[in-house]
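=== RUN LOG ===
request id: a7f3
mode: sequence -> structure
chains: 1
length: 361
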Amino acid sequence: MADTPSLLGKSDAMRQVRSLIEQVAPTDISVLILGESGTGKEVVARHLHERSLKRAKPMLIVNCGAIPEGIFESEVFGHERGAFTGADKERRGYFELADGGTLLLDEVGEIPLASQVKLLRVLENGEFMRVGSSKMRKTDVRVLAATNRDLSQAVSTGHFRQDLFYRIKTVTISVPPLRERPEDIPVLVNHFLKGFCKRNHIPMPDIPVETMRVLQEQYWSGNVRELRNLIETVATLERGKQTITPEMVRANLSTTVDPALLPVKLEKPPEILERELIFRMLLDLRSEVAEVKTLLRSAIEQANEQNRSGHEVFALKLEDIEKEQILRVLAEFGGNRRKAAEALGIGERTLYRKLKEYALI
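=== RESULT ===
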């Protein structure tokens, strides 16, 4: 439990994740862990196992997306000798190997449709059969599932069984992307840097506020995993330096940007692609202007109502009103930008831009 980086953080989102783990870990209930790649879904699963009644037994991880469809059942449920060509000896599957412990089905959305009904049987009554066997076997395994796919969409398109979907999502834990909790970045950075320097006998450098600000402003498409890799890369390449500067960080940042801001790659002439990109930017701008107008209208109405004395209305600057409204709503939601943006009726990207504009971050 010493190295659990993805669960570090002071944000409301991570506090909620830790609270859910404490609530459901001591039970044998199935848990579906959702989150983008690199957010720490496996770390959540390990916390659930280590706090469960099955912690004395092993936790095994099955990468369902890495097992070819033709041998999936053999890998997961095992097979008898002679069950198929090449099966020269019997093999225990993951459900037997993890008996008494925990089994994490990573990338659960990739399980072949034909195998899903057999998985459902194990979840319902703990029974399964090896490939090539007619003998029913029992197993006592706590099953956790993780995915970055939209399983409800997979259900609607017929690629995932509805009954299995509802069975594995008894409790759902959503791990938020790093870009939605920039307040957690300083904690994570210090944890990664301290651990890496200690393991490699490197003097730990300082990270000034301006460097941390650069890190907090990144999109982090690879989430916590990408942040950790960056910190370890900079610590290695800038070994011996007393301070990690913003320039050192920028020099090692990937060129990944918010995919929502990228044009779709099409086989069209450059001039047409350029016009389409400009048109998209104008649409985004119009949307943001509309959002800001909505925010200002709400703020002005509230300010005038609060400051009205008879027929006299205080003359307030629009910028001050907007800034005050943003600060008030942010405080109301404990600094959670996603919830604040929803309450303000604007996009999270617009809120982030406004926070930078008013030097609030």
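=== NOTES ===
The beta strands are 31-34, 59-63, 78-79, 91-92, 102-106, 127-128, 137-138, 142-147, 171-174.
The chain has 15 helices and nine strands.
=== END ===
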